[in-house]
Amino acid sequence: MLAALADPTRRHLLDLLAELGEVTATTLAEHLPVSRQAVVKHLGVLEAAGLVSGQRVAREVRFSVRSASLDATARWMAALASDWDRRLAHIKRAAEAAEAAERDGR
What we know:
The protein is an alpha+beta fold. It is about 70% helix and about 15% strand. The chain has helices at about 1-5, 10-20, 25-30, 35-50, 65-105; strands spanning about 25, 50-55, 60-65. A hairpin with a 2-residue loop joins strand 2 and strand 3 (about 60-65).
């Protein structure tokens, strides 16, 4: 899932889908500097990651954001970021304590 979100074009596609709602790859390609075929490939990656879904309507496929999956991913990433913030704060306190001890000549 993170690999799917790592690409800036795919993140832009998610933004567009959130803004435009259910649309075709052709409509999305009109908003991007890449071909329709490239958009379809990016949508395939996002669909495999569970972030978007495609629904056939007559002769076209309309894509939409799977908001529940995106929300779950955002919550997981926020929890991960919070954990890293705690770890980094601990490292900072340890480094500052070591620096203070060195200054005090201990």
